[in-house]
Amino acid sequence: MCIGAVGMAVAQFALSAASTVAGFMGQQQQYEAQQQYYKNNREAANKAAVNTYASNQNRALQERAAASQQLQQLNTDAMRGRATAEVAAGEAGVTGLSVDALVADYYGQQGRYERTLSNNYQMNADYLRGEMDATQAQAEGRINSVQQGQKPNFADSAIRILGGGLEAWGGLQRAKLQGIA
Prior knowledge:
Oligomer: single chain
Mean pLDDT: 88
Distance between the termini: 6 Å
Structural class: mainly alpha
Radius of gyration: 41 Å
Strand content: under 5%
């Protein structure tokens, strides 16, 4: 009889301990899977951000090249216009303030167009910098939207095993009091 009650207490303790260890192992696997999911999400978000940064940088370089090309064309056209005006005035025998005013007007038009070109380029550059800031915020938001796993605590499992042992020991003591053990 005594072995039966002791055997039951040992079996109860072993079953409780095995169940707790299996639960801990399941929690550990769930933790590792969640951590891998978090890592994969972080890597994908960072890769998408890098691709967007590269695209925006490429666009900024294209915008700069286009503005430079337009500026070169403007300078060429302005010089050609001034030269044409001066040659035509010289051939017509016109000199003085009216010719100077015409040439000054060409310079003024060139300056206004250069300023407009510069302002437009600057607005595009500012827009692209804003896009990059938004890309960073989007990547951070995407990363933060996935929780990291919570590592299981073995102390909790140890307490459950101890509790199972105490419960089995208490059952053995009750069995002794009832005269079964």
